[in-house]
Specification:
Low-confidence stretches: none
Largest sheet: 6 strands, parallel
CATH topology of the largest domain: Dehydroquinate synthase-like, alpha domain
Bound molecules: fe (ii) ion
Strand order of the largest sheet: 1-8-5-4-2-3
Mean pLDDT: 95
Helix content: 40-55%
Number of domains: 2
Oligomer: single chain
Distance between the termini: 29 Å
Order of helices and strands: HEHEHHEHEHEEEEHHHHHHHHH
Length: 402
């Protein structure tokens, strides 16, 4: 990126950082059992929540017994199972109508990132009744607090239960609309790992590497703080020690609980310190080719780290030391390469391919690179600024036939 564009990006990032420093990023109050939903609702005098739940979880014994308990306590509720992956504007507007028609007074989101993100989008709309989703593109457009929001993740990856972010897809152009505001942080998060005990291994792998990328991108970015670095490093270590065990045996409750915790910690880190080009490129590819977010993330992560090159040797060397990948007397470059090799090896063991293997059409490369650049520049506080041409080179390298 040329000097003047770089100066402009860094100036915008500095302003956002200073502005963000004045905002309050709450941490959700944590609970550990699905059944705690009842307690939280009663404690907050809520009697008519909209429960947005993934279709799979809605059929589980645990969910049915939660519903029975709510019936017993004479708590009204409306259950919605319409959200699947990549929630669209239409899905969110339908949820809003349901919330209003049934005069709901709280949100309970039980599911993966899509369920929680769609519920956040809906919560935003019901607290700003005269606004459309696109209206929130402007800075400072989120004025009002959302209704009571309880998030219960059933995957270990997005960290949406503690982040200020939501991603909703505009079905008209496949554009992934990413919105971030501290008012979108759920009030309560329930980390109940037993809900993840029958998660398919394919979901465990892609959500796990997504959590890893959240922690790594937050750690490498220039908006890092002592708080975000600490959370990010702890998340990376937990992922190193538990993701493969969880992937190989979802009934391993220790590994499962640790991965849920890692996803939460990574969420705390990246919602304050942002992500980087791994995410902007993954959004572009995932939206165009309808590939899972974590799948694109897993493939892109090593390529983007290699593109940052010597700019991140120092920080990657600290990750290497924290993970004890190689001996402490190695150079920063050797330690950085050890981290990248570890990620490649992890991907391999998780069944994530080493490239997109020709998925990206040549004629789409420029458009995807522009899309990724538009999302990230000038906003994301990346360790090394890359222009559209440099992002296109990453796409070309990551698309080679494996
Ligand atoms: Fe992500």
């Amino acid at each position: 990126m040329n000097v003047f564009s770089g100066m402009y990006c860094r100036a915008v990032q500095k302003i956002i950082f200073l502005f963000q420093s004045s905002l309050v990023f709450r941490e959700p109050e944590l609970y550990s059992n699905l059944e705690d939903i009842e307690t939280i609702l009663i404690k907050n005098n809520k009697i008519n929540p909209l429960i947005v739940v993934s279709n799979t979880v809605s059929k589980s014994k645990r969910f049915k017994s939660l519903i029975k308990a709510l019936d017993k306590m004479k708590i009204n509720y409306v259950v919605d199972t319409s959200v699947s992956h990549d929630p669209t504007f239409k899905v969110v507007y339908n949820l809003k109508q349901k919330y209003i028609d049934n005069m709901c007074d709280a949100f309970v989101a039980i599911g993966g990132g899509s369920v929680i993100d769609a519920s956040k989008g809906c919560a935003l709309l019901v607290s700003h009744l005269d606004k459309k989703i696109e209206d929130f593109r402007k800075l400072l457009s989120v004025k009002n607090e959302m209704p009571l929001f309880i998030a219960c993740p059933t995957t270990a990856g997005t960290g949406s239960e503690c982040t200020a972010a939501t991603v909703i897809t505009n079905e008209e152009n496949n554009d992934k609309f990413a919105l971030s505001d501290p008012k979108l942080i759920p009030h309560y998060a329930i980390l109940d790992d037993s809900l993840l005990d029958s998660l398919p291994s394919t979901i465990i792998s892609v959500t796990g590497v997504d959590a890893l990328s959240h922690a790594i991108e937050a750690y490498l970015g220039i908006d890092e703080t002592e708080f975000t670095n600490e959370k990010a490093l702890d998340a990376i270590k937990l992922i190193k020690e538990n993701l493969l065990d969880f992937y190989n045996d979802p009934s391993n409750d220790n590994a499962r609980g640790n991965m849920l915790r890692a996803s939460y910690l990574a969420g705390l880190a990246f919602t304050r310190a942002y992500v980087g080009y791994v995410h902007s490129l993954a959004h572009a590819i995932g939206g165009t080719y309808h590939k899972a977010h974590g799948y694109c993330i897993g493939i892109l992560l090593p390529y983007v780290l290699e593109a940052y090159n010597s700019k991140i040797y120092k920080k990657l060397s600290k990750i290497s030391d924290y993970l004890e990948l190689v001996s402490l007397d190695k150079s920063d470059k050797e330690k950085a390469n050890a981290v990248i090799s570890w990620i490649k090896e992890l991907n391999n063991k998780l069944g994530i391919p080493s490239s997109f293997d020709g998925l990206i059409k040549d004629e789409e490369l420029n458009k995807l690179a522009r899309h990724a650049s538009k999302e990230a520049n000038p906003f994301y506080p990346v360790p090394k600024l890359l222009n559209t041409k440099e992002l296109k080179n990453i796409l070309i390298k990551s698309n080679k036939n494996s």
